[in-house]
Amino acid sequence: MGRRQKVKRYTFYNEITQPMLPSITTPIPRYLLPRQARARRSRHGIAAFFSAILLFINALLALALVFGLLLLFAHFIMICAHLTFGQYSYWITYLSTPLVAPFDRYLPTVIFMHYTIDLPTLAAMFIYLVGILLVRGMLKRLAGK
User: Fold this and answer.
1) pLDDT digits (tens, 9 = 90+) for 41-93
2) Within a 10 A sphere around the Cβ of 2, how many other Cβ atoms?
3) Is 144 a residue whose pLDDT tops 90?
4) What one-character-per-residue DSSP string does 13-52 give?
5) DSSP letter string over 99-145?
6) How far lies 140's CA from each of 15, 56, 137, in Å?
7) 138 Cβ neighbours under 8 A, 6+ residues apart
């Protein structure tokens, strides 16, 4: 096997059709470029570290929002249709009661035909959704700077 020829990675002109162009049109190698000051590089590194932490917290909040809304929705459906599934309904009620408790004393439970509409659960779903979306928006703006 013959030796491989070195491939030019950076060519901005065609040497055959434009032979008069000098070689200064190729990019400058990275090691010849001026470097940033050490303090500026370390500030950039610290900012990138905290930005990554904020983005991770943002992702955790999104995950908590999804699980919380699913839990509250299951709680709402169980109360609305008067469903009981043994241990499943016990755990749904046990886990969702602390989330609904702040709204229980302010909103009533409405009975419509054969269904029970649990307004505290609906209010909790809405308030948690809006609150977490606002916090996530602020974290996104902080991480972007």
Assistant:
1) 898 899 999 999 999 999 999 999 999 999 999 999 999 988 888 899 999 99
2) 4
3) no
4) S-TTT-TTS-GGGSPPPGGGSPPPPHHHHHHHHHHHHHHH
5) HHHHHHTTSPEEEETTEEEEHHHHHHHHHHHHHHHHHHHHHHHHHH-
6) 48, 10, 5
7) none
